[in-house]
Fold this sequence. Notes:
Layout lengths: L29 E7 L2 E7 L15 H6 L10 H9 L4 H15 L6 H29 L1 H7 L4 H4 L4 H26 L5 H17 L9 H24 L4 H20 L5 H7 L4 H5 L1 H25 L3 H22 L7 H22 L3
Antiparallel strand pairs: 1-2
Helix pairs in contact: 3-4, 3-9, 3-15, 4-7, 4-8, 4-9, 5-11, 7-8, 8-9, 9-10, 10-13, 13-14, 14-15
Amino acid sequence: xxxxxxxxxxxxxxxxxxxxxxxxxxxxxxxxxxxxxxxxxxxxxxxxxxxxxxxxxxxxxxxxxxxxxxxxxxxxxxxxxxxxxxxxxxxxxxxxxxxxxxxxxxxxxxxxxxxxxxxxxxxxxxxxxxxxxxxxxxxxxxxxxxxxxxxxxxxxxxxxxxxxxxxxxxxxxxxxxxxxxxxxxxxxxxxxxxxxxxxxxxxxxxxxxxxxxxxxxxxxxxxxxxxxxxxxxxxxxxxxxxxxxxxxxxxxxxxxxxxxxxxxxxxxxxxxxxxxxxxxxxxxxxxxxxxxxxxxxxxxxxxxxxxxxxxxxxxxxxxxxxxxxxxxxxxxxxxxxxxxxxxxxxxxxxxxxxxxxxxxxxxxxxxx
Length: 368
């Protein structure tokens, strides 16, 4: 629920658990606000200094749809709306729902159970993660005007009213589906609805002032990690069973790995974060220290989970999880530790599939 049953891996899970006024001093460009029938568009006038960061005319249409850098400039409003939801960040939450269903021990491959799972995945991914990512882009539009001036809001390709409407539609759709799932599952207490509502609140305070949790690198990144890992897992498990204490502990532990993944997305925004006074990990500790904190949080967490599974009498699951950690370490040295800005996408595409497979191994090991 990115954060809402999200709530990545794009701190933007993700773009990608997932976050959203300030009037920054922008020496390299001007910000103009045009008002027309209560429609305000924030436009970034680019200079030669940031032309190298703007997408070329031959930018990727796929990147545009997924909501990641290197995107082609688009004028189709529905494609722009989809871009704001950052579909690249949906998979971790969809996978989290599957892990929760597996951990419940009650999922079966019947039409009804599959249908329930699909609805829960739509709630967690497109609806609530889409809400989180659109909300985050809304509150980050001034920073994006520095780091990514070609994105929909800074470039003026979508208006304020259209963005606000999208935020509300996605939120209400996600919370509505959560209530439907509680009725479908026969819950006397609407657990999934509460998870969706709580996750949506975390998404809001993560991005919006005055709290804006993302300003605090510890609390903000952990909130993001928990939203992308714990909340969708709990939703999937509650749909088919009950949420148990051991699952709460394990998923919150895994959220520390999500905390590390969230740091990956901080590196591309260092310039804007520094100008706007946001203390992200790379800004606060420097890039060299931050990248080691990042991989340490990811790897050490999984090693602790491996130890837990071994102590719980699950040696084969522990061995499988250990085997999935090894390639992650390899890709960390091959890509991320060499250059976390240049290779962030390659690193995440290469390493994170092994992390999410590890989540499934853990879910099967703890199946009730």
